[in-house]
Amino acid sequence: MQLRKGEKRKKGCRRLTSLFRCTPATYLPQSRYNGGVPFRIRQFGKADFDTLWRIDQACFDPQLAYSRPEMAFYMRRPGSFTLVAEGEGVGVPGNGSSPAGIPGFSILGFIVAETRRKGGHIITIDVVAEARRAGVGSALLRAAEDQLLRAGARAVALETPVNNEAAIRFYKQKGYFVEKTVTGYYSGQLDALVMTKELARSPVG
After folding, report:
1. Start-to-end C-alpha separation, the chain
2. Measuring CA to CA, how many Å separate 149 from each of 110, 189, 203?
3. Which CATH code, of 3.30.300.30, 3.40.630.30, 3.40.50.620, 3.30.1330.10, is assigned to 23-154?
4. Residues of the chain whose pLDDT is less than 70?
5. Which residues contact 25 (CB under 8 A, 6 or more apart)?
6. Whole-number pLDDT of residue 191
7. DSSP alpha helices (H): ranges in the chain?
C-alpha cells in the first residue's frame, strides 16, 4: 500500500554521512505476526538510510519520491523520528538483510513522523510491495502514534494525494478524517487531503 508524505522542500545537497548520529538498533517491545512469519519494529539506525531511500524510490513516482537530501532533511528535523519494520526470512528483491538489525531480517517498510508542540505529524509511510496487506503499515502507524502520544501529542495529522484511494481508505479505517484539501500541495500540481486523528490516552488503573 502506498501512503504518502508531507510537502517536498528543497535543501542543499550535503554529505549524508554527516547527517545522522550513529545509533544502534533499538527494538520496540512488541512483535507482529502474519501467517506465522514475524516482523518487528525498531528505531532507525544510521546504516538503514540507503535502504530506506531505495524503498521510497520504489514506492512512489518521481513527483512524490524524495531525493536523498530531502529525505535526510525530514528524518533529522527536531522532534522527528523514524521507525523501521523488518521481517524474518522475508525475501525482498534488492533489499537484503537489515543493515542496522540482525542477520536474516529484511526491511519491509518504515515511517517518519514528528512532534509539533501538542500535535504529531506523519511525514511518510513506505511499505515494500511484497509486504503490503500483511499488517506492516498498520503496525508502523500504531507504533508511531504511540510514540507521539508519549511525547505529549494530543492529535496527529498527515497529508495524502486526493487520488490515492487506497491510502485514504486505509487512514479512514485507522480513525482519521478529512479536515481540508490543499490545492497544489505536491509540487504545485497535485492536491492533497489533510487528515487528522485525536490520540486517546489509555485510562489509568
Report:
1. 37
2. 19, 33, 13
3. 3.40.630.30
4. 1-37, 89-105, 201-205
5. 42, 43, 45, 98, 100, 101, 102
6. 94
7. 49-59, 68-75, 136-150, 165-173
